[in-house]
Amino acid sequence: MSRRLLFTAALAFATTAIACAAEAAAVKNIVIVHGALADGSGWRKTTEILEKRGFNVTIVQQPITSLDDDVAATKRVLDLQQGPSLLVGHSYGGMVITEAGNDPNVAGLVYVAAFQPDKGESLLGLASSKPAGSMDIKETKDGKYLYLDPGAFAADFAADLPKAEAAFMARSQVFASKQAFSAKITQPAWRTKKSWSIVATEDRSINPELERDMAKRAGSDVTEIKASHAVFASQAEKVANVIEKAAKQAGE
Questions:
Q1: Which class does domain 27-250 fall in?
Q2: Which pTM value belongs to this model?
Q3: Of 21, 31, 152, 214, which residue is the least packed, with the fewest Cβ within 10 Å?
Q4: Which H or E run contains 71?
């Protein structure tokens, strides 16, 4: 082989290697979808950790009026991102990212103590298949929305958070429509996208065994963290570590 051909081959190899490296590091947008009976403010610690590591983090404040409304709210945020995004969902947020994750700019999905449904499944159906405990869920007077009794919030949702922080989360929770909890998934994105799952081993809102089963079914990369359902707040650094790993691997 002539020197010119050797140089051309070496240049092509180097260009390919640089392109692959750039692609592997391409996912810098993290879009977080919070769960029901909470809002996005609980993700502040995780967000600040990820931002210090160079990520662009946006939190969707979806209305939880219906699954369709929440998917639409998530897509509006995805449309604002420059380049591919990693979608992160907590609890009910897992239902949302399972549908919204079909957006072509979504590079991967991270389920954080979340529902990870298949086609035709709803949150209510999954939750009843392996009950987690006796969550004190109440209805609003009009019978259309659900909320967690503030007096039971700490024990049921955030047992490993400081009392004041759990109390604030209880007061700032977003009520969830029954329609959102009964809606069924039509096209689960984890069937075509890479996925990661965090199992909160002390979860009293979603049965940890259900979290394990859903992750196994989806072929997700699983990390177990000893924490309550509010793992994103009580173990922010560990959750950020999983998200960072997923963002790197999603670009490979």
A1: alpha beta
A2: 0.89
A3: 21
A4: helix 67-79
